[in-house]
Amino acid sequence: MFDYDVIVVGCGPAGLMAAAELKEKGINVLGVDKKPRLDKNIRSASGFFNDGQEMNGEYIQLEHLEGKTKINYTKCGFSLEYSKPMEAIHHTHIIVNSGSHFQATSRKKPLYHIFNPTTWLSDRYKRAKNLSVPFMTDTVAIRAKEINGGVEVNLRTRGKTTSKTCRKLIASDGLQSRITRNLGLNRNRLVFGKGPTIEYEMINVECPLDRGDIYITGENNIGQPGGVIAVPSPRGKKAYRFETMSALPGSTSYNMIEFFIKKSPFAKWFKKAKIVEKTAAIVEMFTPIKTPYLGNILLVGDAACFAEVLYQGATMCGYMAAQAIDNELKGKNGFKEYTDWWNSSFEWNKDPKRMADYTKRVLFTRFFTPDEIDFLFDLSERHPAVVGEMETGVYNYTNALMDYFSGLPGVPDQLKEKMKMIKEADFDKLLTVISRRRD
Ligand SMILES: Cc1cc2nc3c(=O)[nH]c(=O)nc-3n(C[C@H](O)[C@H](O)[C@H](O)COP(=O)(O)OP(=O)(O)OC[C@H]3O[C@@H](n4cnc5c(N)ncnc54)[C@H](O)[C@@H]3O)c2cc1C
Question: Do residues 126 and 134 lie in contact, with contact meaning Cβ atoms separated by under 8 Å?
Answer without folding.
Answer: no
